[in-house]
């Protein structure tokens, strides 16, 4: 025997009489009910910085690893009708990175803050600091339009549509970042991919490919500005910023070497010289800049007991120097010039006391 159909529990969408549907009257909000306000977008965020480590942390299951990019650290602020590309020092370089700005506009109408690195990639897809410096210098300084076709490798999301994400654990921020960039990845803003591999093997592979190193991030940590140990960097070759405090003249070129200094407490200490890595145009530009910074005082800017003929300059220029090790008397070994950092980048000068 066939059972009769059950009476539906839900009310039919249309009344039998065909009358118009009506919604319930809107009730006033209960003042006792808490409001959930949006978080205002911070005008600037001090970046989280990676601490140099010699080996991966023990029990690193909660860590994620990615390639270390060699460029300028930037935060991209995207708001309604406005995009800002801020350097680590808080300067607006939007006019220097038009491709990144255009890619950021395409992410709208969402509001967000992306954290990442502005880089120039070589033919093998490796970031090249010299290429980036050239794109910012030779292409723009003559015309006054300091622009670069650099791309952004994004690795964190700090703010999204009215919500400050810095208190959220990194693995959740990372997932949101990948969702945001899922449809646009491959343009001028790209995701810096996490690589699932043993970090020691990954570092070895990165060094074999000529990369700078790898960066690890604690998946369970919130976003904290400065060097907190939540982010670690393992390098193939050491690369740090040093003050240029003088140069050794040459009869066949702008100079034969640059003399370098690092912080030792509150003072500067001579740490050796660098005489390789310069292109002719870059060397000439450096010499012109140093001629404007000639040291006027009788004593040099750093204690020095060497026998070279040196033209001392005010410790203003910060050079990025690649080196293999330190000598027994505290000087750089096998050093090479990579490029000149800009003050607006708020580059670190190496500290001997850390």
Automatic annotation (TrEMBL):
Do you know which InterPro entries this protein is assigned to?
A: ATP-dep_DNA_ligase (IPR050191), DNA_ligase_ATP-dep_C (IPR012309), DNA_ligase_ATP-dep_cent (IPR012310), LigD_ligase_dom (IPR014146), NA-bd_OB-fold (IPR012340)
The answer to whether the entry has keyword Acetylation is no
Domain ATP-dependent DNA ligase family profile per the UniProt entry, residue ranges: 152-264
E.C. numbers: 6.5.1.1
Record keywords, A-Z: Ligase
Q: What class of enzyme is it?
A: ligase
By its UniProt entry, which Pfam families does this protein fall under?
Answer: DNA_ligase_A_C (PF04679), DNA_ligase_A_M (PF01068)
The chemistry this enzyme catalyses reads: ATP + (deoxyribonucleotide)n-3'-hydroxyl + 5'-phospho-(deoxyribonucleotide)m = (deoxyribonucleotide)n+m + AMP + diphosphate
Q: Which GO terms describe its molecular function?
A: ATP binding; DNA ligase (ATP) activity
Span list, region Disordered: 1-43
One BP annotation, GO: DNA recombination
Family note: Belongs to the ATP-dependent DNA ligase family.
The protein's name is DNA ligase (ATP)
**Species of the source:** Ferranicluibacter rubi
């Amino acid at each position: 025997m066939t059972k009769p159909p059950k009476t539906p529990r839900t009310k039919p969408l249309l009344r039998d009489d065909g009358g118009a549907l009506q919604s319930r009257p809107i009730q006033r909000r209960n003042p006792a009910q808490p409001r959930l306000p949006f978080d205002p977008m911070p005008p600037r965020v001090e970046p989280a910085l990676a601490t140099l480590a010699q080996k991966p942390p023990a029990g690193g299951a909660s860590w994620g690893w990615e390639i270390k990019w060699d460029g300028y650290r930037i935060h991209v602020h995207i708001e309604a009708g406005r995009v800002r590309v801020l350097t680590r020092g808080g300067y607006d370089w939007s006019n220097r990175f038009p491709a990144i700005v255009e890619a950021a506009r395409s992410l709208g109408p969402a509001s967000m803050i992306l954290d990442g690195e502005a880089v120039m990639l070589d033919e093998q897809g490796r970031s090249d600091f010299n290429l980036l410096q050239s794109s910012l210098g030779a292409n723009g300084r003559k015309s006054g339009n300091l622009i670069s076709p650099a791309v952004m490798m994004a690795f964190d999301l700090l703010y999204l549509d009215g919500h400050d994400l810095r208190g959220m654990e990194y693995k959740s921020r990372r997932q949101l970042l990948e969702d945001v960039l899922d449809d646009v990845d491959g343009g001028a803003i790209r995701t810096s991919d996490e690589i699932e591999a043993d970090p020691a093997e990954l570092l070895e592979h990165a060094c074999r490919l000529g990369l700078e190193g790898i960066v690890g991030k604690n998946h369970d940590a919130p976003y904290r500005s400065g060097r907190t140990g939540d982010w670690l960097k393992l390098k193939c070759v050491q690369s740090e910023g040093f003050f240029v405090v003088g140069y050794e003249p040459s009869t066949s070129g702008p100079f034969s070497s640059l003399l370098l200094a690092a912080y030792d407490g509150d003072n500067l200490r001579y740490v050796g010289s660098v005489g390789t890595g310069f292109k002719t145009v870059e060397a000439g530009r450096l010499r012109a800049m140093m001629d404007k910074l000639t040291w006027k005082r009788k004593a040099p800017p750093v204690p020095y007991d060497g026998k070279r003929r040196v033209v001392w300059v005010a410790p203003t220029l910060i050079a990025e120097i690649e080196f293999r090790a330190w000598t027994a008397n505290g000087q750089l070994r096998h050093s090479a010039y990579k490029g000149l950092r800009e003050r607006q980048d708020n580059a670190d000068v190496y500290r001997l006391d850390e």
